[in-house]
Specification:
308 residues; alpha+beta; Chitinase A, domain 3; two-stranded parallel ribbon
């Protein structure tokens, strides 16, 4: 054994292994540079925010948007460093398509290699998004199944989510504000007739959504009739089987007869347990991704670009 330890060849092998692993450790933990966002990118982020929300972003919003963009670029850079673009079938197919568009020649492997050498993958937004998705999945390690106590805690925290709203089945007769006369007055004149079992089909004006409505929530009514209608229905506590009104809407006035009401109810824990498991896993994956990003940020330093 001592003789083996004294062998120079063994020493060279051990030193080589040490240098190999040490170099890998240094490369894995070395700081990597990433350019700060240029003014055009920052302006694009602001414009996107305005287009989506209809308002100017606050400084806090802009800081968050910039941080998210830098995180995406960091994930993309890390995916390239790990060569994820060289073994991903979606990326490879995209590179082949780009190679054909550029007129690159050769077999599929040669086209892909040429496209990568030209940096095509760095300017293709589809490839960029795919690489970011790969890194997000890489960051999300598998988790144990949640316990019932964890799910019950989540169930209690999300009570409003499991509320099934009351639903109404009803008929309505519409009196348009676009016709001569006040719609409320016209509705009141017809109310007595309808209570006397007059032919409903002959009363009122045509309405886009029809006369009969089954199992509609107050939110559904707001969408179809406007908030004034759903507010009036909610406040009235409408009697079953009787015509009442006028009920105002965004279009005029209505006479309404409620035929059935399904009261609001809370879904039970057992009923929503599969959904709770999905929510719990999503939360865990989000936490894992944020933790991974926090560690990754320690390895990247943002440097001022040429535009700064």
């Amino acid at each position: 054994m001592k003789a083996l330890i004294r062998q120079p060849a063994l020493h060279f092998i051990l030193i080589g292994l040490f240098l190999f692993f040490y170099q890998g450790y240094r490369e894995e933990n070395a700081l990597r540079e990433m350019e700060a966002l240029d003014s055009d990118t920052v302006q694009r982020l602001q414009d996107d925010f305005i287009r989506q929300t209809g308002r100017l972003p606050t400084p806090e919003h802009m800081e968050l948007l910039i941080r998210q963009e830098l995180d995406s670029r960091m994930l993309y850079a890390e995916a390239l460093r790990r060569n994820f673009h060289r073994d991903d079938q979606v990326v490879l197919q995209r590179l082949l398509r780009d190679a054909d568009f550029l007129g690159l020649e050769g077999n599929d492997e040669e086209k892909i290699r040429a496209a990568i050498e030209l940096g095509v993958h760095e300017s293709d937004e589809v490839i960029r998004r795919r690489m970011i998705q790969r890194m997000e999945k890489h960051a999300q390690t598998s988790t144990d199944a949640p316990t019932d106590n964890e799910l019950k805690k989540l169930y209690e925290e999300e009570q409003a989510r499991w509320l099934v709203p009351a639903r109404y089945t009803f008929q309505q007769v519409f009196f348009s504000a676009d016709r001569d006369g006040f719609p409320e007055q016209r509705a009141e004149r017809h109310l007595t007739e309808l209570r006397g079992e007059a032919d409903v089909t002959e009363a009122g004006d045509p309405f886009l959504h029809g006369r009969q409505f089954a199992a509609r929530s107050l939110q559904d009514m707001t969408y179809m009739f406007g908030a004034a209608f759903s507010d009036a229905m909610d406040a009235a506590g409408p009697p079953l089987g009787e015509w009442f009104g006028p009920v105002p809407s965004a279009y005029g006035a209505h006479l309404v007869r409620v035929e059935d009401v399904q009261p609001a109810r809370q879904r039970s824990f057992d009923e929503v347990k599969p959904k709770l498991v999905a929510i719990w896993r999503e939360q865990e994956q989000r936490i894992q991704l944020q933790n991974y990003l926090a560690e990754l940020r320690k390895r990247y330093v943002v440097v001022e670009g040429r535009d700064s």
